[in-house]
Amino acid sequence: MKVKVTGGCLKKREVEIENYFVESLDGYDYERGAVESAARTAENGTKALGRLCDLLVSKNVLSLSEIVYIANGYDAEQLEKVEERR
Length: 86
Fold this sequence. Notes:
The chain has 86 residues and is mainly α. The protein has one domain. The chain contains three helices and two strands. A two-stranded antiparallel ribbon has the order 1-2. The termini are far apart.
C-alpha cells in the first residue's frame, strides 16, 4: 500500500508502507560507525515490534501468552497486565 507522508524533517512524498518502515527504522548516523548504526537499526526494529505487539494486545488481537512466545520462542514465562498510574 502506498501512503503520502507529510510533516517531519523530509519533504512530502509517497512511499510504500514497507519502505516507510525502512526509512523510519534506519539507525544510520554519519557520526557513528557501521556497527553502531546496525545496532541502532536493530534496536529501532525491536522497539517497533514491541509497539506493534502492545497495540495488538490492547485491541485483544493477541494474548499475553502469545506475546511471550513471539518475544522468546517458548512459553515458560507468564505475563500479567499492570495497571498504569497517571
